[in-house]
Amino acid sequence: MTLAPARPVTPTAPAPTATPTRGGRRVAFGWAVACVVALSVVSLFVGVSALSPGDVLAALTGASGAAGRDDLVVLLVSRVPRTVAVLLAGTGMAVAGMLMQVLVRNRFVEPSTAGTVESAVLGILVVTLVAPGAPLMAKMGVAAAFALAGTALFLRVLRAVPLRSVLVVPLVGLMLGGVISAATTFVAYRTDLLQSLGAWTTGDFSGVLRGRYELLWVAFALTLVAYLAADRFTVAGMGRDVATTLGLSYRAVMNLGLVLVSLVSAVVVVTVGIVPFLGLVVPNVVSRLLGDDVRRTAPWVAVLGAGLVLVCDLVGRVVRYPYEVPVGVVVGVVGSVALLHLLLRRDARVA
Amino acid sequence: MIRVSGAVKAYGATRVVDGVDLELAPGGVTSIIGPNGAGKSTLLSCVARLLELDGGTVTVDGLDVHRTPGDVLARRLSVLRQDNHLTARLTVRDLVGFGRYPWSKGRPTPDDERHVVEALAFLELEAFADRYLDELSGGQRQRAFVAMVLCQGTDYVLLDEPLNNLDLRHAVAMMRLLRRAADELGRTVVVVLHDVNVAAAYSDVVVAMRDGVVVHQGPPSQLMRTDVLRDVYDLELTVHHLDGRPVAVPVL
Fold first, then answer.
1. CATH homologous superfamily for the domain A83-350
2. Which three-class secondary structure state does DSSP give residue B205?
3. What tens digit of pLDDT does each residue of B152-162 get?
4. Domain containing B65: what range?
């Protein structure tokens, strides 16, 4: 059966404004990607060991001899892995935040305001205590399992909270995260692991070297999975009833989303530590500009997430040169200001 | 054909739907009316498989709605609930486009696009197509959601109190629209309504519920009688005929 139009529909019926905006969006997206690429190149040449594009060129042509080989080692073992790690972690955490906001139907949740990353840290602590020699993959698996359990607990608590106001949801998440962190800190204190705990909880790319970040590609693969299922997430974000009407298994999409979010969070925490608020700031900005159709916004969230972490990491590297401020601190400052802005915005209650 | 047999839905000890048997023939507009708490919306949600039944069955064209795969049913039956608060910022065009999800699975074909354009035209939403839902008035937003369920292209369209929060002008426009969806598009429209006069004016069949059971089913002319309405509402209503249409007025 087809829908017969009430009035004759002219062939130009799709709004004439849509095409230019779509084209405009594509151009803007191109610029955003170009900016991130440019920043990535800059990132390759910012660090304690002096390295300039000229050095690299000289090394590649063999003009600088042994010193040139050292330059290439710095580039390939430290700078390139670090930059790639920043991009992958930023992409993953921003998209994970967006998924969480869509599925929980609340603008203010993200893995670090829902107990997810705190649970992942607890998981790392547990696996360190129980099986200190476990390979990285096993650590990540345990962290992911804990992250999943923590997120499920968060959703469970939410169902039990009678007044589900927009702002109560992230508050519940922050409190739950606080409780989990407290337990983690207590155990770490009793087992003399407070220092390691500090390393896991503060997002920091200064330790990223070749061979220590490749797990982040898993996060990137998961982000791609999220993109492929984008429409399902948008539909699920319209609520259980709409999803059911459209023939989608709400539970299945919810579970897929939460597994993706937990895995990405776990991978990022295991490899670089907590990057707080990123999943909150970037998706909210993109949502304001482009709405919430996940298929349309996901690429933007990914690129802007990568860009923001990259900028924060560069700032952290430069601001106290030759020392470094961990990226988690920089993102934390930027992110908490942005969170306050979002919360205090006049229309926050209807967001 | 929608066939409900022995449907029971209970919340704790309260049986909100208490053994409903109902057959709704394809085509036309069917209204479900009754006092508050009669179980109208609950029954509609059970038919639309949004709620599990505690007993009995519901079939649509012979398919048991609670056993048939969701995506199969989504091509035959669509439903619009009362409160459609979206946290997601979507444009009208996006929203209506998602009505095609059961067919497109997220990969819209030109045919799907055509359905979207037609649904927007049918509800006269072209001017708002690229606006976000939170930038629309209540009436426009309601129309966008109706466009979405019509765009789903299902034979059966279920709506739960679509006139809620609409002023008189928009309420009339909505009922005319549902009438046209039945007459021009051949849809089977089942709608839960509050106002017995609206139901009588726009429906082919009226189903009256009270205390979780169906107490009356038939054309409006059979419903609009003082004794029938007393059974449904427990209230004295006088039926006047204005311009040949029955209008029930409460005795002061």
1. ABC transporter involved in vitamin B12 uptake, BtuC (1.10.3470.10)
2. strand
3. 999 999 999 99
4. 2-224
Number of residues written out for chain B: 252
CB contact under 8 A, A18 and B93: yes
Tell me the nearest-neighbour CA distance from B41 into chain A, angstroms.
13
CATH (domain of B39): 3.40.50.300
Amino acid letter, residue B226: T
Determine the distance in angstroms separating the CA of A101 from the nearest CA of chain B, rounded to an integer.
Answer: 9
Residue B240 within any structural domain of the chain: no
Query: Between chains, do B102 and A295 touch, taking CB under 8 Å as contact?
Result: no
Q: What residues of A are in contact with residue B151 (Cβ under 8 Å)?
A: 3
Structure tokens at A320: 């106290």
**Mind giving me the DSSP string for B28-77?**
SEEEEE-STTSSHHHHHHHHTTSS--SEEEEEETTEETTTS-HHHHTTTE
- How far A237 CA sits from the closest chain B CA (Å)? 7
Model confidence pLDDT, tens digit, residues B170-194: 899 999 999 999 999 999 999 999 8
Q: Is the pLDDT of residue A156 over 60?
A: yes
What interface predicted TM-score (ipTM) does this complex get? 0.91
CA of residue B42 relative to chain centroid, distance: 12
